[in-house]
Amino acid sequence: MKITLKIAISAIALSLAGCTTLFPPQVNVGDSEADVLAKRGQPTHRYQDGKDRLMEYALGPWGQKTYMARIGADGRVVSFEQVLTIQKFASIKVGESTKDQVLRIVGGPSETSYLPLRDLEVWSYPYREAEVWNSLMHIHFDKAGVVQQMLNGPDLRFDPDRRFPFGMMR
């Protein structure tokens, strides 16, 4: 009986300890860069944006959230936001935006591919459109690294009716 109680207490303690990684501490405007690192760990990518530095925190290859911490010249957080949103994607301009600009707006892609017939590189980003639909945004770049097309649609990896590798099976 004592062993079972010890196992149960250990399991509860481990579960609660895991919550700290599932729900990391909030990053606040005015925090130092060291505070961000202490709260979130090392970023997945870092970018320079003028005098500001960006620290990207992507949440996994299928992750639908990427957080971007903007650190001002004074070393303090100017903003900390989830960037995989339809509003951020809308700020990317077809025919104008470059790969570097896209990286600074929505971070690195979850996966990349190439369309040989059109000679376009495609960056794909999973996200939750309107916090409801599992979606993918595909950003197409030409050889010069300029956005030529953006397409979004359902993320079929989350579709319970889709059976890998043969597609729809019922």
Give a structural overview.
Helices cover 25% and strands 35% of the residues. It has 170 residues and is of the alpha+beta class. It has one domain (26-155). The strands form 3 sheets. It has a 4-stranded antiparallel sheet with strand order 1-2-3-4, sandwiched between helices. A 4-stranded antiparallel sheet has the order 5-6-7-8, with no helix packed on it. A two-stranded antiparallel sheet has the order 9-10. Strand 5 and strand 6 (120-129) form a beta hairpin. The radius of gyration is 20 Å and the shape is globular.
Low-confidence stretches: 16-20
Total of helices: 4
Tell the overall outline.
globular
The total strand number stands at: 10
Summarize the structure.
This protein has 170 residues and is of the alpha+beta class. The chain has 4 helices and 10 strands, in the order ααββββααββββββ. The radius of gyration is 20 Å and the shape is globular.
Properties at a glance:
4 helices; alpha+beta; 4-stranded antiparallel β-sheet; about 25% helix; globular; about 170 residues
